[in-house]
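User: quick one, fold this
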Amino acid sequence: MKLKKIAALFMAMVMVVGATACGGNSDAQSASGDGEATESTEESGGDGELNIAYIVKAKTDEFWTSMEKGAEAYAKEAGVNLEFQAPEKETDIEKQVQMVENAVIKGVDGIVLSVADSQALIPSIIKANEADIPVVLVNDTIDEEALEADGGHVETYVGINQYDAAKLAGDYAAENITDGKICYLEGISGVKAHEDRLLGFADSVDFDVLASQTAKCDRNEAFNVMQNVLSATPDVNVVWAINAEMGQGAIQAIEQGGFEGKVQVFDFDASSDDLAAIEAGTLVGTVAQYPEIQASTAIQCCIDAINGEELEPHTETKAQLITKDNLEEYRAEIAELTE
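Assistant:
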C-alpha cells in the first residue's frame, strides 16, 4: 500500500479526539484459535535509522495477524525498521514483559505495545521511560492511575473506545431482541479492554443473565463453556462474546447441540469466519475495529513521539457494527484498505 493511500484512508477513518490526528508534522489524537502459534519475533520494514519494537499479546487469531500485516506494510513505506513480536498465548504475560524489557536493553528508538495485562506491564513501561524510549499503546489500555502513581507515562493510546464499540452491538440487540436471556463469554482477567467490551454491551441491554464466565479468548474453550451453558440453561437465546474466537466457539456448540436458530450470537473483531457466519445467518453481528488502521496509526504516532512531538492521550480509531445490512459494504472497504 502506498504511503499516500494509507494517509488518505487514515484521515477518512480515524475519528479525532481533541484536535488533529497523528501523522506528518501534526499533533496526535486521540483472542486464540484452534491451534497455537509459536512465539514470534520478526524484523521487517525499511532500512531507515529508526528501530521500533512492536509487541502484541499473541498471533493466535486473525486480528493480530491482520495487525501484523498492516504494521509491516506501513513500516516499509515509512522506512523504519520494525520488529514485530508476540508470545505464544495472550495469557503469557511474563513473556511479554520480557520482550518489552529486552527491547529497552536493546536500545530501540520506540515501542508500540498492546498490553497483555493492564497492570503487570507498568514496571516495564517505566523502564522504557527511564531509557527515554517512547511507548505507544495500541488496541489495549493500561491502568492509567496506577501508571501515573508510579511515575510512568505513555505517549498515546491508539485504538477504539472499547466500551462505546461494544455498545454498538448492545444497542442493536436491545432494539431487536425482546425477552433476552443472555450468556456472556468473558475475556482474560486483568485486561481492561475485555472488561470494557463486556460492560459496553451489558449496560445497553436489560436481559436476564443466565451465565457469565470466561473462555479466555479461546475458540475451543468457548465451545466447551457454551456446551455446558446450553446443557444447564437451555433457555439462553442471546450470546455476547468479547472476541471472534469465542464467538466462533459458541456458534459451533450451538450448532452441534441442535440450538441453531434459537440463539442469537454477537461478537467482536469481524474475522473472516465472522463475516462468513453473518452471511450464513449463524452470527447476528460483529464489531469491526480495523487492525490495519490501528497498526499504521500507532507506528506513525511512535515516529512522531520519537521526533519529539507531543501527542494527545487518545488517538481514537474507527469501530463499526457489521450485520447483514452492511456486510458487503464492509468487505469492499477492507478490500480497498488491504490491496
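User: anything notable?
Assistant: The longest helix spans residues 62-78.
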